[in-house]
Amino acid sequence: MRSAQAFKLLGVNRGADRREVRRAYAALLKQIDPDQDVAGFLKLREALEAAENDIRWRAMQQAALEHEGAEAVEPGAETEAGVEPEAEVSAVEVASLGPVLPDESPPLAAQPLPDAPPLPRPVRPDFAELPPVLPQPDVTLPEGTVPESLVTVRLQPLGNPDRFAALRRRFAAGIGGGDETDAADAVALFEELLADPALAAIDARERFEGWLAELLHDAGPRADPVLPRAVEAFGWANELEAINPRWLQARVAQRADDLAVIARLEQPGHRWHVAYATLQEPAPDQISVTRRIALREQIEGLLASLRRHNPWVEDHFDPAHVRLWEQTMGVGSGVSLALFREGISPFGGLMLAYLAVQLVAWLGVL
Q1: Per residue in 271-313, pLDDT tens?
Q2: 307 and 314 in contact (C-beta within 8 Å)?
Q3: Which of 9, 117, 328, 338 could form a disulfide with 47, with the two C-beta atoms 3.0–4.6 Å apart?
Q4: Separation of first and last alpha carbons in the chain
Q5: pLDDT band at 332; cut points 50, 70, 90
Q6: How far is the CA of 24 from the CAs of 50, 235, 318, in angstroms?
Q7: pTM to 2 decimal places
Q8: Cα(200)–Cα(144) distance, integer angstroms
Q9: Angle, helices 346-365/289-309, rounded to nearest 10 degrees
Q10: Rounded distance between C-alpha atoms, residue 65 and residue 57, angstroms
């Protein structure tokens, strides 16, 4: 997106600073629902990045101009510091010198100052990493002017666009449910896409990343085998900690993290493995005291961790079973199970529970 289009979309003047641009972006972002208008959200984000790049470019230009102005020497501004004043000549000394003759010596020609090396011009951030432009094959140069290796690398085509487009269609059909592509085939196709030379161009890689994030987000569980590799290849895990993350990439990264957590919980050696397996079972009529004592801390720690970092994983549990455990951890047959963590032995807890039941029965008789 061009800078003029970006400022026009944000509704600010071309000379606005970064704070004004950020405020305009925040105001427009409140009017967009990323779930309903993904294209509008991505366009607004692109406008913000283009406007900030333009502001940085103008700041570098201004700094370079100020540097050039400081180096220039203004006429008549020479300092006389350190120059001794000429000595005054008395009238007697002037008379002894004889008549003053006109100065017939030719004037000294002004000697040009040596040329100073030119100051480096500011480089736009958009083009800072571009390789040098090499001659095209139809330009005839003397032999040895440009190394043959550089010419060969520059003239190598960036992949086959038709082949890359065909790979994208096959991958989208497999992930989107258009055919019966299995997990291994989907991962293999994705590796082919990443290795294709067409992604060497910066703009092509950015477009592919946006297309891929939208595809994986909309595909749901069918995209699960590809998620870890996609998050690793494009660094989407950083979006989970970003102040202003890219919404689609962050959702895909969260899904990949949830799947990694589930894989760890399914390992028998994990400290919360038993609690994870228990909450997936249908809810019983009641939870025995022995089971409460054995699993309470595991289930309490598991639910607290998931609700803070991976709330989607809780969808794998039986909701009625989770509610039963929440009620049990809150009351526990008339005796708070928190007493067990305060130093009361299990036997002492059973005695307290028995006394509580007897008390309730006695009150019922009265």
Answers
A1: 999 989 988 888 888 888 888 888 888 888 898 898 888 888 8
A2: yes
A3: 9
A4: 82
A5: very low
A6: 14, 28, 45
A7: 0.46
A8: 28
A9: 110
A10: 13
